[in-house]
């Protein structure tokens, strides 16, 4: 579907099928949560990500059908092996796609507040080198791209994790006024 739907017009051709398709996906998601079948769950999570991306803003009305179950997955699926880690990573990716689908809704800011609180708390529970950290950073990037300057309110809560993710050491140096003009003429390269 994603290969076919690479522009807005092509995505619209899926709209008539949205309700039926997403209703079936909701049932399959609930079933996969209940059965605890890892293969089915991974496929369903991939489908949720793909369809939320394809339907974009139209997917917002289904967010409440999926977000609670995705949070449940992160709270209950152990991070003990590659199979379960992949499920957890896919759940985080889904949450990012879904919350950005909600960007035009009145409750978007409140939903982002809840999601940010959830992920900040979650990041504090997992190891710094856990692969989930990178997925969460991707979610932050998705959210910030839609919130723009309004995202700054979350920075005090995530700034340390952002620096850790990039392993950047921030150093501040001051220069004499006479050196500032020379410094301003130099080009700097940030090496990460």
Overall radius of gyration: 20 Å
Shape: globular
Regarding quaternary structure, what we see is: single chain
Helix percent band: 55-70%
Distance between the termini: 36 Å
Approximate strand percentage? under 5%
Strand runs, count: 0
- Element order: H for helix, E for strand: HHHHHHHHH
Largest sheet: none
Counting H and I runs of at least 4 residues, what is the number of helices? Answer: 9
Mean pLDDT: 80
What would you call the structural class?
mainly alpha
Task: Flag low-confidence runs.
Answer: 1-5, 187-192
Features:
globular, 9 helices, mainly alpha, 68% helix, single chain, disordered N terminus
Describe the structure.
The chain is mostly helical and 192 residues long. Helix content is 68%, strand content 0%. The protein has 9 helices and no strands. It has helices at 8-12, 18-35, 38-55, 63-76, 82-101, 108-125, 131-147, 155-166, 177-185. Helix 3 packs parallel to helix 5. The longest helix has 20 residues, at 82-101. The radius of gyration is 20 Å and the shape is globular. The two termini are 36 Å apart. 22% of the residues are buried.
